Hints:
The complex is a heterodimer. Chain A has a domain at 100-281 and 310-323: Orthogonal Bundle (MetI-like fold), CATH 1.10.3720. Helices cover 72% and strands 0% of the residues of chain A.
Amino acid sequence: MSMLSKAQPNHRSAPAVRKPRGGGLLGRLKEQRLLYVLMLPAIILTFMFSYVPMFGLYMAFINYQPGGGSFFRQFFTTDFVGLQWFEYFFTNGDFVRIMRNTLAQSFLSLLFGFPMPIILALMINELRNGWFKRTFQTVSYMPHFISWVIAANIIVTMLSSGGVINNLLTGLGIVDEPIQFMQKGPLFWWIIAISNTWKDMGFNAIMYLAAISAINPELYEVAKVDGASRLKQMLHITLPSIRPTIIILAILAVGGILNAGFDQQYLLQNNTVLQYSEVIDTYTYKYGLQNGMFSYGAAVGLFKSVVAFILVISVNQMAKKMNEQSLF
Amino acid sequence: MVKDKKDFLFMTAVYAFIVAVFVVTFYPFWNIFIISLNSAEDTLRGNLYLWPREFSLASYAQILSDSEIWMAIKVTVLRTAVGTPLAVMTISMLSFALSKRELVANRFWMLYFVFTMYFGGGLIPYYMVLKNYHLIDNFMVFIVPGLMNVFYMIIIRTFMQGLPQELDESAKIDGANYLQIFFRIILPLTTPVLATIGLFTAISHWNSWFDSYVFTYDPGLKTLQAVLVKILNQYQTGSMVGDAQQMANSAKRLAVSPDTIRMAATMVATLPIIMVYPFLQKYFVKGMTLGAVKS
C-alpha cells in the first residue's frame, strides 16, 4: 500500500502539471478557478458545520443564558467564567462515574469486538467459494446496516423476561427464574459490549478478508507440499500475514477509546441502570440540551474532544512509526 | 491419513463456528419478523420461536393506517431521495479537485478537511450554531449538514488518483476544461465507488433518528426511526412497571398489542435496507477494501 502512494509523485509530475499559462501563483489560480468552483460548496459547508461550532466552544468559558440574546453576541455580553465549568465537572462526583462507564464499555467492547472479526475472517477464508459462503457473508453484514434504533428494539426483545434468551436459559435449567437483563446495572456494560460486537463483527471482517486475499498463494502450495494441516496453514501463514493489519486496527481502536458511543447507550438505557449506562456523550446531551446547562455541556464536550484528539494524534504517530505510513 | 483426519476435525469446527455466528446474526431478525406476523393476543402467550402460531397482518394494517407513520415514511423517503444525490455530488466534486496534484494549496485544503475528522465542537455548540442558521425545526437540517463527509472524500479521491493520468491529459490537449474532464471522463469512471458512497449515505439517511429527535420539534418532521425511538421508549418504561401489571393491562388490550406493533414498525423500518444492501454488496466490499488499503 505504501508502495502505491510512493510511486505516485513521480508519475504525477507529468508534463501537463507544469504548464502555467500566466506563470506565477495568480496565473495558476486563474487556470484552476474551475477546480476551486468544484471545491467551493464543500469548503463553505465544512466551515459552517465544522469550524464555526469549534469557535462556538468558547461558550464553555462563559455563562451562556438561553434567553440572553443571540449565541455569538453572548460571547461578548456574558460573564467570562474561566475554567469554572471544568472545575465543576471534575469535582461534582460525576466525572469518575462517567469516565468509569465510558472506559469500561469501550474496553469490554474491544475485548469482544476486536478479536471476533479476525476469527470470523479466518473462518470465512476456510470456506469453499460458493453459495453458502456468499449467503453467510451477506447475512453477516446485516446488523451493520440497520440503525441502533432497530438493533435496540431487537436486543430488548431478545433479553425481555419472556424473550428467547430467558426461555432458553430457563428451558435448559440454567436459571430458575427469568433474568431481568435490562434492569441490572453491572450487566449493562456487557450488554453494550456484546451488542457492539454483534452489530459490527461481520462488516469489520471485510478489512481482514481483504488483507487475507493479498497473501501470496504460493505460500500455501509450499506448506501443502510440506504436509501442513489446514489449521497449521491458518496459524502459520494466514495469521502472521495479516498481523500488520491487526496491529494498525488495534492502535486505531485504542485511539477511539473515548468514543464509547451514544446511540446504543441512549437507546438501551433506563433509569434503573443509569449509574452504569451513562457515558460522556449521553451525559453531555442530558446536561447540555435536556437540562439546559448549555455551557456546562459544552465544557464536558470540549474536555472529551481535546483528550480524544490527543489520543488519536499520538496513536497515529505510533502507527506511522510501526508501519511507516500515515492515516491520511 | 492422519493429516486428513485433522483437517476433517478442523473443518467441522470451522463450520460449527460459522453456523453459530449465522444463527446469532440472523435469528433475532427472524424472531422479530414472526412476532410481527403473529396475532397480538396469541403473542402474549409467549414462546414464539420459529413460525407464527396464529398468522395475522393486523399489526401491519394498524401501522400502515397510522398517519404519524405515513408522515414519517414521507419525511424519511424525501430526505434520502434529496440528500443522497446532493451529498454524492458535493463530495465527488471536492474529491476530484483534491485528486489534482497541481491544485494550488492542495496540502492546506487536505488538512482543512481532514482536521475536522479528528476535532470537532461537540454537540452543544453544534446545536447552537444550527439554531443561529435557523435550521432547528427545519427540513433542511436533514440535508445541508450531511452534504459533506471527509471519510468518503478520501475514498473517492484515492480511487480517482488511481485512474490513468493519460485520460485527462489527452482531454486537456483536446481543449477540455476541468469541468468537462470531471463530468465527462472522471465521473463515469468513478461509478463503482460512487455507488458505494451513495449506498452508505442513503442508509445513513434512512437510519438517522438523532437529528430528527433532537433538532426538530414539529411532529411533521419526525423520521421513521425517530418515531420508532418513541415506541421503544414507551416499551422500556412499560417494562419497568413490572410484569404483573403488564399482564393485567394486557387483558384489556385489543386486537393489537404494543409488542406486535413495535415489531411491525421495526420490520417496516428494516425491510427496505435488507432488500437493498445485498445487491450492492460487491461494490461496498470493494469500496471498503480500497478505503482500508489506503487509510
